[in-house]
Amino acid sequence: MEARFGAFSFDDVTRELRCGGQLVHVSPKAFDLLAALLRERPGAVSKTDLHSTLWPDTFVTDGSLAVLITELRRALGDSAQRPTFIRTVNRFGYAFGHAFKHTGDIISTMVFGFGEIIRGRVPLTTLGGPIMIGYVAGVAAEQGFDQYLWLMALISINLGLLNFLPVPILDGGLLVFFTLELFKRQPPSPRAREIATYVGLVVVVTLMLFAMRNDVVRYLLPR
Q1: Is residue 64 part of a domain?
Q2: Rounded to whole angstroms, how far apart are CA atoms 136 and 142?
Q3: Residue 2 bridge partners (DSSP)
Q4: Burial 192-210, CB ≥16 within 10 A → b, else e
Q5: Range of 29's domain?
Q6: CATH code of residue 4
C-alpha cells in the first residue's frame, strides 16, 4: 500500500515513511500503527482493533498504544491539541463498556505477576515505591492528562488488589479471620490475632523498605 498525506509519502512494501523525499525514522510498531490507520482512513479505528493488529498474542495496556501515537505525532509534527493527521475520537459507550473488560484484564495481569514473583521467575528488584510512582506519574503527565488519569486508575486498581492479599493487617487478612470464624463457629483468640497482626506488619514494612531500596538504587544513586 502506498499513500500520501500532506508532505508525507508512505510505502508499506519498502516500509518507508518520507517527508519531502527525506526518510522519517519511526519504530516498527509505530510504522504498523500508521499503516493500520491509513488503511481505514478517513474512518476511525477502535482501540480494540489496533490492539489485535499490533499485539495479536500479547496483552498490553492502552499506555503502550498511547506511546506509539505520541511517537507518530512527533514524527509527523502533529499535535494532540490541534491534530492534523491523527485525531482521537472519544466515545462514551466504548469507554464505559470496555472499562470493565480492561479492569478485569489488568487484575488478571497483576495476579499473574504476583504469582511469578512468588515463584521467583520475576526478580524482586522490579518492585517500586513512591519514588517510582512519582517518576512514572511525571512521564504520564507529559504525555497528556488522559494518560495521567489512566495511570491513577492503574495505581488505584493495584492498591485495591494489594489490600485483598491475605496479610492480617490488610482487608484480605480480615476476610481470612472472618472465614475461619465462619467454619470454626468462634473467632480466633486475641493472642492469635495479636501474633498474626505482628507478622502482617513485619511483612508489609519489609516490602515497603525493599521497594524504597529499589527506588533509591534505580533513581537516586549515581550510575
Answers
A1: yes
A2: 10
A3: 11
A4: eeeebeeebeebbeebeee
A5: 1-89
A6: 1.10.10.10
Q: Is 172 within the bounds of a domain?
A: no
| Segment holding 70, helix H or strand E | helix 62-76
pLDDT at 36: 86
- How many domains, in total, are found in the chain? 1
> What does 31-66 look like in DSSP terms, one character per residue?
HHHHHHHHHHTTS---HHHHHHHH-TT----HHHHH
Residues 88, 73: contact at Cβ < 8 Å?
Answer: no
For residue 8, the model assigns a pLDDT of: 84
Contact 208, 219 (CB under 8 A): no
pLDDT in tens, 138-179: 888 887 787 788 888 888 888 888 888 888 888 888 888 888
Are 114 and 107 in contact by the 8 Å Cβ rule? The answer is no
The string of pLDDT tens digits covering residues 2-53 is: 888 778 888 888 888 888 888 888 888 889 888 888 887 767 778 778 888 8
* Pairwise CA distance, residues 63 & 105, whole Å: 14
Instruction: Note whether residue 149 is domain-resident.
Output: no
For helices 28-40 and 47-54, the axis angle rounded to 10 degrees is: 130
pTM over cut 0.70: no
Q: What is the radius of gyration, based on Cα positions, of the chain? A: 23
Give alpha helix (H) positions in 120-189.
130-143, 145-163, 171-184
Task: State the cell numbers at 8.
Answer: 508525507
The total number of residues written for the chain in this structure: 223
Sequence-ordered list of residues with C-beta below 8 angstroms from that of 18, at least 6 positions apart, any chain: 8, 9, 10, 24
Q: Is residue 78 part of a domain?
A: yes
